[in-house]
Amino acid sequence: MKGEFTYLKGRMARNRNLAIILLLIGLILLVAIPFLFILSVVLWAISSTCFGRYWTWRQGMSGERRVAEALRSLDDSYYVLHDVVLDPKAGNIDHILTGPSGVFILETKNYSGEMVCEGDSWFREHTSREWPIKSISIQAKRNASILGGFLQSEGISRWVRPVLVFANPKVKLRLQRPTVDVVGLKDLQEYITSQPFTLNEEEAKQIAEAIMNQVTKPSKHP
Description:
With 222 residues, the chain is α/β, with parallel strands linked by helices. It has one domain. The chain has helices at 6-32, 37-71, 136-153, 188-194, 201-215; strands spanning 79-87, 91-99, 102-109, 113-118, 121-126, 129-133, 160-166, 171-176, 181-184. A 5-stranded mixed β-sheet has the order 1-2-3-7-9. Strands 6-5-4-8 form a 4-stranded mixed β-sheet, with no helix packed on it.
């Protein structure tokens, strides 16, 4: 499996470590300087937020690992990279795949429960209400644009297909006019291999190597 989820692990470690440090400082202040109790409470509140972010990143990495495992069964004509950072300001691209059926970025989500899509607007349903979340389809299209721009800079002109992959089998999707393709984990391989073939093996390899030369060592297998 290429890519050891370095970006995600870094995010997890930073939030976990900061949470622990703030928690300990708050405890020390409470014991040593009791009248700074309010400051201790503030530090604990920030620590709790950091722990929450840590668990969010951990859940995200769990979903990405599931997708990575699902992609292992693709044959050697496909190249896969995980957790790719091409633009540090934009964060990571969960998965990049190139092969006979084209160039894809796979944006993985590990949500459970009911998700509602209306175009580029996304909601999570809870207690019979729909709560808006940051648009994950716009996120996928942005990452496809980043990859497309990078390939252009390498002299490669290819359309990059953005795809949303829901890795959690407990998710329920209600989709209305999604602006990107949306796929469940169990259907992912069939989805990829059923797309029209647009690249030959040499072209797929060239694209993969251009990306991997930027971020890691090339390989044919996820």
